[in-house]
Structure formats: structure tokens, C-alpha cells
Amino acid sequence: MVRNLAVRQSNRSGRIDGHKPIVERFAEFLGEAKNKRDLSTLQASEIARFRDQEAKERSRATANLSLKVLRVCLGEAVRQGLLAVNPAVRVKLLNQLRNRSGAHSPSHKSGES
Q: Cβ contacts of residue 51 below 8 Å, gap of 6+?
């Protein structure tokens, strides 16, 4: 059921090229058993773990992009009545504005996450 998210979204926007690889990675992350279950059982904690894995294996920017794509796809599922709520909106983006020492850069605005 998760893999169908990219197809459903592409039918509306024509943007499958960018969404499909991310949705495929998310489906692989969930595993075959979880991938076949109903979308309504998807938890924000699973999406957060995927985001964290993307950051570790790729980059924070890629992790944030992946999260945004999942938000859009799951938002479309809500719009189509397949989900009551979008669990991805409960997952925060990762902060990307850190220098090498881990301190906030001077351009970081207070209160942003």
C-alpha cells in the first residue's frame, strides 16, 4: 500500500520522478510485512526513524526532502479519503544550520527547528 503513494501523487502532479525513489526507500525501510498493511496504521515514529536513517546514510538535506515528499504523498492520501490524518506532519524537519563544532551558525534564527 505504501508504494502506491508515489503513483497516486504522480497522477495529480506529474512529479513521480522525484517522489518514487523516496517512496521506494521508505517502503524498503518499512519492510515487506509493514509495507502491505493499511496506510492508517502508519505511525509518525516510523516516519521519524526513516528520516533519521536518511540523515545517517545520505544527508540532513536529503532526510528533510524525503520527509517533505512523504508529507505531500500522505497529504494527498488524506485528501482522497484514504487516511484520516497525515502522520508525517507530526515529524519535525532536521536542523541543517550547524557549523562543524555543532554550535548554531550566526545566521540561525532563534526558535526555528
A: 63, 64, 66, 67, 91, 94
Fold assignment, 4-90: DNA polymerase; domain 1 (1.10.150)
Residues near 36 by Cβ (< 8 Å), separated by ≥ 6? 1
Which pTM value belongs to this model?
0.76
HEC assignment per residue over 54-105: HHHHCCHHHHHHHHHHHHHHHHHHHHCCCCCCCHHHHCCCCCCCECCCCCEC
**Alpha carbons 97 and 75: distance in angstroms, whole number:** 27
* Residue 56 clears pLDDT 80, i.e. is over it: yes
